[in-house]
Amino acid sequence: MTEAKERRPSRWVSVSSSSLLLTLLCLSQPLEAKKVDLEAMLRSGYGDSVRIERKSLLLTRAEAADVQKAARMRLSSRIVRLYLVKRDNKTLRCGIVLSRKVRTKKAAVLYLITPEGRIDRIEILAFAEPPEFKPSGRWLALFDGKSLAEPLRSGEDIPAISGATLSARNVADGARLALAIVQRLGLCASR
């Protein structure tokens, strides 16, 4: 009986030393998932004199349906994390944080939107996929000034990212959702 066990090939026998080394190197690379002080980031972008209001909204079924129709895609959650950047009771920007699955792991993206309904900037807050799939700041800047009136589709009016197609699509789809949420609910109006 022990001889049969010894003759049975081990599944580790076929692994070459070079593929084992490559696997160990890949596993040792840190994934880019870090905590971000969102309020500090917003203050650094708009000045220390701004006030940040943080809210969680639960969209009604009717609001969610309206947003989905405007964005031309499904919402993964009716819960919305909203940040209002205000100065002297005037809303300067609306920030919507969307956390969505890219491939197998989630990415959290902040979409900053002007009161006129245009993207001011996009920041990736957390990205648990391998770093080479993360869209660059230069690519994210292509969304600046865009509104919901534009298609905002990766590979169409926004260039695709070679090798990171799903990441690019995730950001573009999120931009349409964030713009639709702000527009349909009138969230960026000064209050």
Keywords:
single chain, five-stranded antiparallel sheet, 6 helices, alpha+beta, 5 strands, 191 residues, disordered N terminus, 24% strand, globular
What does this structure look like?
- The protein is of the alpha+beta class and 191 residues long.
- It has helices at residues 2-7, 17-28, 38-46, 61-71, 137-140, 165-185; strands at residues 51-58, 79-87, 90-101, 106-113, 119-127.
In percent, how helical is the residue content?
A: 25-40%
Strand content: 15-25%
Number of helices: 6
Largest sheet: 5 strands, antiparallel
What is the structural class?
alpha+beta
- The topology string of helices and strands comes to HHHEHEEEEHH
Short structural summary:
Helix content is 33%, strand content 24%.
List the helices and strands and how they pair.
Blueprint: H1 2-7, H2 17-28, H3 38-46, E1 51-58, H4 61-71, E2 79-87, E3 90-101, E4 106-113, E5 119-127, H5 137-140, H6 165-185
Antiparallel strand pairs: 1-2, 2-3, 3-4, 4-5
Helix pairs in contact: 4-6
